[in-house]
């Protein structure tokens, strides 16, 4: 290669380097945050899966191999919380998606008042689920809750319903979760509906399709792609819900509303001052890692299935 | 016949919407009205409206005795700060990812996308606290703000998607005009991605304002830095004295109202933002 | 239009903020307003500025006595001649966690209000300072009776002295008992179940029920009731048999069965499984609950101040089967102060503590105001206790109460890591659900003994076995 050529390639390399540096200078602020608050905690968790540690004031962390993981698989309560989480997520999604879809369908049209109703339905999504958990406690408790009083006064029920008792607490939790989340999903659906052009619907109608037929043969299939995203978001969200459970039921009674995320949390921090679970960082890390695998696995499985469905249709 | 059916459907829809509106508003109105009741009236149940007068002093109690004035200021300061950090850092990073090729980009992208599927949840708070302690930030408001802002992978990807939809010719024209990468960002891209920046801003503000668990843990060693949300919920756990539900509800109302006002002015933006997020995926 | 306005607004906010950040270190300064006064830093600047004041930081978990204590602290700060300034901080929630974090980061305060778990957690690693070098004769004379080996005296070192005590008792509503035609409060467990049943069957139409417990958190509900009841009933503490040196829950069966009845619809206030203690108290104050079991130190104040009660309440010892008491009941010794061994101001801390918190007049005032039940003889002698203590002698710590040795998991919570549900959660599911009691208790015994053995093998736990252990006199 000639001298001239190396010079050019040197210049090129210099320029490349400069461009890299420039890129990184813009990326860096976020990258630092990302490494500190996303990557580092993951590495820490992965490491502590293999350790036993009870925090300061207790013996130093001790390497115990796979003991924590083995314990997770033998932990009956943990698997109960997995079942609870699946029930919670399943019920929430099954109820919230059709309701949100109906709301979107009815509110999508440019009619007077629709915008207002839309805004009202969206309000809960901007509120703290922890603060509202307190309010829901006042509404749902069995001895003086407003809900029971209302139902009794209107003779809907004869006996007060124990909304926060073992049998009903999960249902109550799902109701409050629907309250807090429905606005989000309604808006997603409206976004999807607005992407369907009026012309398509119009031509279907001209072809003699009635409302129900247009809905079923045109609107729903055309919503397909966005529905996939909505379901995906709802799955991840449902698996991460925690602060509403923490405030409303603290996972009780008798662990009937204990979800995976809260179960892992209690090995690091107390849920309430009355809790007597001792701190077990290693085991908590193992519980959280297995939970993350379960949640991630379900999401990936869903993506896989929805891809497959795409191929079929 | 057809007409009758149509009216029937209309009435059905109307009833459904009414039920949903009542379902949505009832808990909020109950909380606000409850904040004017006495503690014993609240805890003993009773009717929807206060029976023995409207107790405005609950708010006075909340603001003065329970220090809610301070917590409100904390909430405002912390939420706005974390909003600014999130907007600035995520739009810069989103821009770089969308427009530049650099060494290690693929690898970094894999982490950003991949970690969206790994939800370790609140467990990460413990290592984060330790990290802040090592950096001597655990006793300062900065640590709390940074922890609340977090890694923001999803915000970065959101901005990235938005930048990608802007025609590349604009950048190229700017390069010909002699703009550096910084010039391109500030002069060309930033004005165009304002909508998505507003989305990131609003959502970060909402999350910081409402966050309970992260703020709770990060403020344990500095109770003076608590936000409204944490302060309200913690009233439930007063160990020796009885819980003061009236003050708690007054606090809840104080926490609810500012975010409602923000929403009132920006509800179109909120909804547009969510839409952008969903469509871009 | 609106969109644009909002953007303009957001941008201007962003701009002002960046400008603020641009002006030197203003971010730090604006952060100062909400940030907590950093004790160490401040003491430094203080001493630099005036060159003399020594700052003593105290952390407390209590709010109920805050008025009295802060007034005493303020007076001391104004008067003391040693140039000591006491900074009294209250951490009601997450107290334990806050202390953990403070120790971890080396910023623990000089003095910490005693709490059993915290004390136990750190005592073995030498985090607490020993009182003995500081104790003068006067101090020994006043507090000698509450320095008890195994509790606050370990290997000859004294780490705190308690001044008040609390324990569990049965509280009942006299008017409800009268209305239901029951003459006396229950003296036996059988009577207690029967009374609860009578009240519920006669009065549930009026919304009045026989019994309640705050079972939302079984640990909180049973830790204030069943723990003491079993000490009296079986002579076991936390299921641990000190004579045999192992756990044995098999004897719990009759008590758990009685609780199951007490919490069933035929006796109990509806919704006990989701009840917190405060809602329970409001319902009791409202005359809806016949009886419940709780701590003696808290309830009198609650029904006087927080939830004023119309009906008259009474208090008796926790009933046991056939009234056959086999053991003394433990009590929680409160009002002690732990000293951080790493504190640089130990001398000043002791001076402040001695002047403020060991003053007999202060302790008498504390007792008279009903803030805590004194266990210091000199104070009891001097104080004129509130009328409520005179009327209800069972509120006081008496002959039937004693300090118990610590069960293994009390000594070190991490030495007995039980797989599966802990004892209270297990009891809770037996009482409220349909878990089989006999086999469940067998399983619980096995799991606790296995955990104990694992802890001992690990080196974290120690074997605790007391020959000739007498549950009626457990501290000997």
UniProtKB/TrEMBL annotation, chain A:
<feature type="transmembrane region" description="Helical">
    <location>
        <begin position="284"/>
        <end position="305"/>
    </location>
</feature>
<keyword id="KW-0813">Transport</keyword>
<feature type="transmembrane region" description="Helical">
    <location>
        <begin position="119"/>
        <end position="140"/>
    </location>
</feature>
<feature type="transmembrane region" description="Helical">
    <location>
        <begin position="86"/>
        <end position="107"/>
    </location>
</feature>
<protein>
    <submittedName>
        <fullName>ABC-type sugar transport system permease subunit</fullName>
    </submittedName>
</protein>
<feature type="transmembrane region" description="Helical">
    <location>
        <begin position="214"/>
        <end position="239"/>
    </location>
</feature>
<keyword id="KW-1003">Cell membrane</keyword>
<keyword id="KW-0762">Sugar transport</keyword>
<keyword id="KW-0812">Transmembrane</keyword>
<feature type="transmembrane region" description="Helical">
    <location>
        <begin position="21"/>
        <end position="40"/>
    </location>
</feature>
<dbReference type="InterPro" id="IPR051393">
    <property type="entry name" value="ABC_transporter_permease"/>
</dbReference>
<dbReference type="InterPro" id="IPR000515">
    <property type="entry name" value="MetI-like"/>
</dbReference>
<feature type="domain" description="ABC transmembrane type-1">
    <location>
        <begin position="82"/>
        <end position="302"/>
    </location>
</feature>
<dbReference type="GO" id="GO:0055085">
    <property type="term" value="P:transmembrane transport"/>
</dbReference>
<comment type="similarity">
    <text>Belongs to the binding-protein-dependent transport system permease family.</text>
</comment>
Automatic annotation (TrEMBL), chain B:
<feature type="transmembrane region" description="Helical">
    <location>
        <begin position="245"/>
        <end position="266"/>
    </location>
</feature>
<feature type="transmembrane region" description="Helical">
    <location>
        <begin position="141"/>
        <end position="163"/>
    </location>
</feature>
<dbReference type="InterPro" id="IPR035906">
    <property type="entry name" value="MetI-like_sf"/>
</dbReference>
<feature type="transmembrane region" description="Helical">
    <location>
        <begin position="7"/>
        <end position="33"/>
    </location>
</feature>
<keyword id="KW-0812">Transmembrane</keyword>
<keyword id="KW-0472">Membrane</keyword>
<keyword id="KW-0813">Transport</keyword>
<dbReference type="InterPro" id="IPR000515">
    <property type="entry name" value="MetI-like"/>
</dbReference>
<keyword id="KW-0762">Sugar transport</keyword>
<feature type="transmembrane region" description="Helical">
    <location>
        <begin position="184"/>
        <end position="206"/>
    </location>
</feature>
<feature type="transmembrane region" description="Helical">
    <location>
        <begin position="110"/>
        <end position="129"/>
    </location>
</feature>
<comment type="similarity">
    <text>Belongs to the binding-protein-dependent transport system permease family.</text>
</comment>
<dbReference type="Pfam" id="PF00528">
    <property type="entry name" value="BPD_transp_1"/>
</dbReference>
<protein>
    <submittedName>
        <fullName>Multiple sugar transport system permease protein</fullName>
    </submittedName>
</protein>
<dbReference type="GO" id="GO:0055085">
    <property type="term" value="P:transmembrane transport"/>
</dbReference>
TrEMBL record, chain C:
<feature type="region of interest" description="Disordered">
    <location>
        <begin position="25"/>
        <end position="52"/>
    </location>
</feature>
<keyword id="KW-0813">Transport</keyword>
<feature type="compositionally biased region" description="Basic and acidic residues">
    <location>
        <begin position="41"/>
        <end position="52"/>
    </location>
</feature>
<dbReference type="GO" id="GO:0030313">
    <property type="term" value="C:cell envelope"/>
</dbReference>
<protein>
    <submittedName>
        <fullName>Multiple sugar transport system substrate-binding protein</fullName>
    </submittedName>
</protein>
<comment type="similarity">
    <text>Belongs to the bacterial solute-binding protein 1 family.</text>
</comment>
<dbReference type="Pfam" id="PF01547">
    <property type="entry name" value="SBP_bac_1"/>
</dbReference>
<keyword id="KW-0762">Sugar transport</keyword>
<dbReference type="InterPro" id="IPR050490">
    <property type="entry name" value="Bact_solute-bd_prot1"/>
</dbReference>
<keyword id="KW-0732">Signal</keyword>
<dbReference type="InterPro" id="IPR006059">
    <property type="entry name" value="SBP"/>
</dbReference>
<feature type="signal peptide">
    <location>
        <begin position="1"/>
        <end position="21"/>
    </location>
</feature>
């Amino acid at each position: 290669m000639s001298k001239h050529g190396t010079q050019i390639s040197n210049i090129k390399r210099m320029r490349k380097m400069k461009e890299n540096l420039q890129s990184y200078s813009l990326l860096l602020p976020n990258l630092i945050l990302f490494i500190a608050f996303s990557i580092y905690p993951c590495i820490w968790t992965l490491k502590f899966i293999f350790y036993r540690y009870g925090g300061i004031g207790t013996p130093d962390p001790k390497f115990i191999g796979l003991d924590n993981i083995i314990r997770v698989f033998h932990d009956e309560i943990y698997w109960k919380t997995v079942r609870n989480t699946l029930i919670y997520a399943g019920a929430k999604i099954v109820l919230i998606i059709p309701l949100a879809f109906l709301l979107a369908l009815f509110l999508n049209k440019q009619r007077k008042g629709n915008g207002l109703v839309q805004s009202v339905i969206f309000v809960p999504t901007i509120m703290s689920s922890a603060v509202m958990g307190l309010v829901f406690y006042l509404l749902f408790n069995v001895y003086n809750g407003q809900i029971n009083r209302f139902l009794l006064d209107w003779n809907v029920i004869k006996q007060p319903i124990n909304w926060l008792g073992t049998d009903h607490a999960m249902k109550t939790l799902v109701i409050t979760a629907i309250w807090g989340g429905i606005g989000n999903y309604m808006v997603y659906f409206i976004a999807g509906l607005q992407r369907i052009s009026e012309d398509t619907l119009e031509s279907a109608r001209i072809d003699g399709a009635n409302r129900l037929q247009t809905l079923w043969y045109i609107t729903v299939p055309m919503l397909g792609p966005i529905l996939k995203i909505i379901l995906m978001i709802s799955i991840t969200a449902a698996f991460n819900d925690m602060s509403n459970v923490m405030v409303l039921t603290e996972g009780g009674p008798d662990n009937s509303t204990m979800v995976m995320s809260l179960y892992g949390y209690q090995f690091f921090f107390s849920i309430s001052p009355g809790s007597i679970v001792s701190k077990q960082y290693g085991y908590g890390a193992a519980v959280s890692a297995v939970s993350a695998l379960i949640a991630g696995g379900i999401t990936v499985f869903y993506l896989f299935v929805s891809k497959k469905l795409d191929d079929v249709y | 016949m057809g007409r009758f059916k149509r009216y029937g459907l209309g009435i059905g829809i109307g009833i459904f919407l009414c039920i949903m509106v009542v379902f949505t508003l009832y808990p909020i109105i109950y909380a606000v009205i409850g904040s004017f009741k006495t503690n014993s009236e609240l805890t003993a149940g009773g009717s929807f409206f206060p029976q023995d007068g409207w107790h405005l002093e609950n708010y006075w109690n909340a603001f003065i005795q329970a220090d809610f004035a301070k917590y409100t200021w904390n909430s405002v300061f912390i939420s706005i700060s974390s909003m600014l950090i999130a907007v600035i850092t995520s739009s810069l990073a989103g821009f770089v990812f969308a427009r530049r090729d650099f060494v290690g980009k693929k690898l970094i992208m894999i982490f950003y996308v991949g970690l969206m599927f790994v939800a370790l949840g609140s467990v990460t708070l413990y290592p984060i606290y330790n990290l802040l302690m090592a950096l001597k930030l655990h006793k300062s408001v900065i640590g709390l703000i940074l922890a609340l802002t977090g890694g923001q992978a999803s915000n970065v990807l959101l901005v990235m998607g938005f930048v990608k939809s802007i025609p590349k010719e604009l950048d190229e024209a700017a390069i010909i005009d002699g703009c550096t990468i910084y010039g391109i960002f500030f002069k060309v891209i930033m004005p165009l991605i304002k909508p998505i920046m507003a989305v990131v801003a609003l959502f970060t503000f909402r999350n910081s304002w409402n966050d309970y668990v992260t703020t709770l843990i990060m403020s344990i060693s500095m109770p003076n830095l608590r936000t409204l949300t944490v302060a309200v919920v913690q009233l439930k756990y007063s160990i020796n004295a009885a819980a003061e539900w009236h003050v708690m509800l007054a606090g809840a109302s104080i926490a609810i109202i500012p975010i409602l006002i923000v929403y009132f002015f920006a509800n179109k933006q909120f909804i547009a933002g969510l839409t952008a997020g969903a469509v871009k995926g | 239009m609106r969109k644009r306005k909002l953007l303009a607004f957001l941008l201007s906010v962003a701009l002002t903020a960046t400008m603020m950040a641009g002006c030197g270190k203003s971010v730090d300064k604006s952060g100062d307003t909400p940030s907590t006064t950093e004790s160490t830093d401040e003491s430094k600047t203080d001493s630099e500025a005036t060159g003399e004041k020594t700052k003593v930081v105290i952390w407390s978990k209590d709010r109920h006595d805050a008025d009295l204590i802060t007034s005493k602290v303020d007076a001391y700060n104004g008067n003391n001649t040693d140039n000591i300034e006491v900074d009294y901080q209250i951490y009601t929630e997450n107290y334990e966690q806050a202390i953990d974090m403070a120790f971890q980061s080396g910023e623990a305060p000089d003095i910490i209000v005693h709490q059993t778990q915290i004390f136990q957690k750190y005592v073995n690693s030498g985090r607490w300072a020993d009182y003995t070098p500081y104790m003068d004769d006067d101090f020994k004379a006043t507090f000698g009776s509450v320095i008890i080996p195994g509790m606050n005296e370990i290997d000859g070192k004294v780490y705190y002295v308690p001044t008040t005590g609390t324990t569990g008792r049965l509280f009942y509503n006299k008017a409800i008992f009268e209305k239901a035609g029951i003459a006396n409060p229950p003296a036996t467990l059988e009577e207690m179940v029967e009374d609860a049943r009578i009240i519920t069957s006669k009065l549930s139409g009026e919304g009045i029920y026989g019994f309640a417990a705050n079972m939302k958190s079984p640990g909180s509900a049973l830790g204030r009731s069943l723990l003491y009841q079993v000490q009296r009933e079986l002579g076991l503490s936390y299921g641990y048999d000190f004579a045999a040196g192992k756990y044995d829950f098999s004897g719990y069966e009759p008590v758990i069965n009685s609780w199951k009845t007490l919490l069933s619809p035929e006796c109990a206030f509806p919704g006990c499984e989701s009840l917190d203690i405060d809602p329970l108290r409001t319902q009791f104050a409202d005359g809806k609950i016949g009886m419940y079991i709780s701590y003696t130190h808290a309830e009198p104040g609650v029904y006087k101040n927080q939830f004023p009660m119309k009906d008259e309440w009474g208090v008796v010892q926790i009933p046991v089967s056939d009234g056959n008491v086999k053991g003394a009941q433990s009590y929680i010794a409160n009002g002690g102060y732990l000293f951080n061994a790493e504190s640089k101001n130990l001398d000043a801390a002791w001076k402040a503590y001695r002047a403020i918190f060991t003053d007999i007049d202060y302790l008498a005032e504390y007792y008279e105001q009903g803030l805590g039940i004194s266990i210091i003889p000199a104070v009891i002698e001097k104080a004129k206790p509130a009328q409520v203590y005179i009327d209800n002698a069972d509120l006081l710590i008496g002959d039937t109460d004693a300090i118990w040795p610590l069960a293994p998991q009390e000594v070190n919570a991490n030495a007995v890591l039980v797989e599966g549900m802990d004892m209270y959660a297990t009891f809770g599911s037996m009482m409220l659900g349909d878990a089989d009691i006999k086999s469940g208790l067998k399983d619980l015994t096995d799991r606790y003994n296995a955990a104990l053995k694992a802890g001992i093998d690990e080196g974290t736990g120690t074997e605790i076995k007391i020959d000739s252990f007498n549950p009626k006199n457990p501290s000997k």
